[in-house]
Design brief:
Elements lengths: L2 H11 L2 H6 L3 H17 L6 H25 L1 H4 L17 H22 L2 H22 L6 H10 L1 H10 L4 H24 L1 H7 L4 H4 L1 H23 L7 H23 L6 H32 L9
Helix pairs in contact: 3-4, 3-9, 3-15, 4-6, 4-7, 4-9, 6-7, 7-8, 7-9, 8-10, 9-10, 10-11, 10-13, 10-15, 13-14, 14-15
């Protein structure tokens, strides 16, 4: 069978699910949730329709970033076990289609967010897409072991965009939410890198586990977790915090610090299976950690109009 006919079959096999997968729906769900929290935590009430449109267009912008990232990373996605079944490496979607979809959705999301809310929010979304695609994907990811540290800023911008969409301006509170995600990102991804290290080795991605080894990565996870705990607990006494947030944060940070400590104590020789399970548990805990912190911020914001949220 000719290459042309093989390509045609693969293109015909692509369906809505394949194009939707290009948008990285799991990542998009985090973008939507944190942006919603930023919108709801803002001190300015937002009309439900405008709020819905804001979150929708922020989600589309996040999806556009995912499609452009998959287009650029198609070569290493073919090598890594975790990503080789994605739409482009598997041949179900052509790279040019992913590029066109990403650019089209990026332009649509920026313009529509600006029209629905304000131009500052639209510009901020445009900068976030640029940061993720160009600064992180095209530059940092393949050039420095600090890729996920600096590049993590892209995933931390959504609550700031949500706040700006509501208020049209800046304040300390959205940057506290930004800092929470920014400091959470390295231990979250380094835990993933520890139990998926062979993928990054094979693809030549200079993740910290590859360039400095597993022991150094464990030390970094512990240090960042300690700093994250201090930041998260400190945020309890800010405009986005309150007693609900403080209780949630205290429990989750104790668990997170314990998990980081256990990872730091692990040894290499003869303990691969135990290390794998410990690192994977920490990775899963990190997902719950961020969800519950932002859920607590949302709860404080929803209760505040009744005088029950915050510190009164």
């Amino acid at each position: 069978m000719s290459d042309v006919s093989i390509t045609s079959i693969r293109e015909d096999d692509a369906g809505f699910g394949d194009y939707f997968a290009l948008l990285k729906p799991r990542v998009m769900s985090l973008v939507v949730f944190t942006a919603l929290v930023g919108l709801m935590a803002a001190p300015v009430p937002v009309h439900p329709l405008i709020g819905f449109c804001a979150i929708l267009f922020i989600a589309i912008g996040g999806g556009a970033s995912g499609a452009l990232n998959m287009w650029w990373d198609a070569d290493i996605d073919r090598i890594m076990t975790r990503t080789r079944k994605r739409p482009i490496p598997s041949g179900r979607v052509q790279p040019g289609e992913a590029l066109s979809l990403g650019l089209g959705l990026a332009g649509l999301s920026v313009v529509m967010l600006a029209l629905a809310t304000n131009w500052f929010a639209g510009a901020f979304l445009a900068f976030t897409i640029f940061f993720y695609v160009v600064i992180y994907s095209m530059w940092l990811k393949r050039s420095t072991p600090q890729n996920i540290v600096i590049g993590g800023a892209a995933g931390a911008f959504p609550p700031v965009i949500g706040w700006v969409a509501a208020t049209g301006g800046m304040a300390v509170e959205p940057w506290l939410m930004f800092a929470l995600i920014f400091m959470w990102t390295p231990p979250h991804f380094w835990a993933l890198a520890l139990f998926m290290r062979s993928d990054y080795d094979d693809a030549g991605v200079p993740m910290l586990t590859v360039t400095h080894g597993r022991r150094a990565t464990r030390v970094h996870i512990l240090v960042y977790t300690v700093l994250l705990a201090a930041l998260a607990l400190g945020a309890a006494f800010s405009g986005i915090g309150g007693p609900i947030y403080l209780c949630v944060s205290a429990v989750m940070n104790l668990l997170f610090l314990h998990g980081a400590w256990r990872i730091w104590q692990r040894s290499e020789p003869g303990a691969e299976a135990d290390n794998f399970h410990c690192e994977k548990r920490f990775f899963r805990l990190s997902l719950l950690y961020l969800f519950l912190h932002f859920g607590a911020i949302l709860a404080e914001a929803l209760l505040r109009p009744w005088g029950l949220g915050g510190w009164g």
